Amino acid sequence: MQRSKIAGIGYYVPKNVFTNEDLKKYMDTSDEWIQERTGIKERHYADRTGETTTTMGVEAAKIAIERAGITPQEIDFIIFATLSPDYYFPGCGVLLQRALKMKEIGALDVRNQCSGFLYALSVADQFIKTGMYKNILVVGSEKHSFGLDFSTRGRNISVIFGDGAGAVVLQPTNALASSGKEQGILSTHLHSDGESAEILAMYNPGTHANHWQPEPFATFDKAEIGQMFMSHAMIDYAQNFPNMDGPAVFKKAIIKMPEVVEEALLANGLTTANIDLLIPHQANLRIAQFVQRKLNLRDDQVYNNIQKYGNTTAASIPIALCEAWEEGKIKEGDVVCLTAFGSGFTWAGAIIRW
After folding, report:
1. Is 281 a known active-site residue?
2. Looking at the structure, do residues 273 and 220 belong to the same domain, yes or no?
3. Which of 92, 114, 322, 337 is catalytic?
4. 3-class DSSP assignment, residue 92
5. For 319, phi and psi rounded to 5 degrees?
6. Of 304, 311, 322, 337, which is the active-site residue?
7. 31 and 126 both lie in a single domain
8. Quick one: pLDDT at residue 209?
9. The pLDDT of residue 210
10. Residues 248, 249, 255, CA angle at the centre, nearest 5°?
């Protein structure tokens, strides 16, 4: 069976840099407080009206397509991962297709949040393996900044997230590395557990009013709530912003991320000693450091860039993957491991021989 390879890769981050010191203007926080809890020093924010999730994805895609040695018209399928689409609907995939003047190809939108890029990569990998498509564009892009609560009330979440986009072009391959071993995506591994879905979620706008409601809506008349999609009460009680139980997410992530890495290694007859570079989803530097210790990896085996970009959710892995490759940290024949954990909960892993 043919495999899929990353033939081109690119990323884009907005020019607007916000440091921890900048955030002090909007909330009671400090550089020390943020770095101690997250490792983040700065993040990039998109222009409020000049940039969207789609436009950032387009910029990353242009670079990936050029590096793959093809044109946008040669792409025959799009998979776009994001939790911050331009519109409630339609999704960003068709907007990117329009912006790049592509053919009337399929466009699939993936909503798996922090695991979105790896889920999208896995879907694309299956399409390539079956021979259905030859050039698949996979994009992860996020514009978090427009939907965060920039006040002391929302600081636990708002200090974490940044904006940006990453993209790859997948193509079929039967190539072997110089070692004689097969190149490309060796395997992908996807998991979920919805038992605690609401502890990392954005409740509104949504259609859940008669099914599940966070406080204070649980005390409202259900017949009244059932008529609401977005209301002044939701805004007053900050229910239109993301909600996260940080410690609970941390505890789950540091278990599931090492587990899926070990699962992926085992599936390919590899061990942690074979990992040339682990690129974890950039959720929190403390999580990444814990995963590194759990897997007994050296510093040079793990790549982190959350310090300067924050958590860019579905974009974090392709941004980090591209940056590591540009810095020469990924070479032909290297075993690269990717892992992510996020809202849902969903988590995933992938093993690539470059």
Report:
1. yes
2. no
3. 114
4. helix
5. -65, -50
6. 311
7. yes
8. 57
9. 44
10. 100
Per-residue pLDDT reduced to its tens digit, 213-251: 555 545 555 555 445 677 777 777 777 888 889 899 999
Residue type, 69: G
Query: Side-chain half-sphere of 160: how many Cα atoms within 13 Å?
Result: 19
- pLDDT of amino acid 112: 95
* DSSP assignment letter at 331: -
**Separation of alpha carbons 17 and 187, rounded Å:** 36
Parallel/antiparallel/unpaired status of strands 77-81 and 184-192: unpaired
* Domain-embedded: residue 348: yes
The rounded mean pLDDT for the chain is 92
Which of 92, 281, 304, 322 is flagged as catalytic? Answer: 281
Structure tokens, 45: 């924010």
Active site residue 337: no
Note the pLDDT tens digit of each residue in 14-63. 999 999 999 999 999 999 999 999 999 999 999 999 999 999 999 999 99
To the query of whether residue 311 is one of the catalytic residues in this protein, the response is yes
- What is the token pair recorded at 247? 């410690």
- Amino acid, single-letter form, for residue 84: S
Residues 148, 259 share a domain: no
CB-CB contact of 116 with 84 (8 Å):
no
Provide CB contacts within 8 A for 89, sequence distance 6+. none
Whether 178 is in a domain gets the answer no
Written as one string, the DSSP assignment of 208-277 is -TTT---TTGGGS-HHHHTT-SS-HHHHHTTTTS-EE-HHHHHHHHHHHHHHHHHHHHHHTT--GGG-SE
**In a shared domain, residues 111 and 255:** no
- Give how far Cα 309 sits from Cα of 35, 44, 142, 154, 319, Å: 13, 6, 12, 19, 9
pTM: 0.93
- Using CA atoms, how far apart are residues 284 and 298, in angstroms rounded to an integer? 18
Mean pLDDT on 82-102? 97
Assess contact for 199 and 248: CB atoms under 8 A.
yes
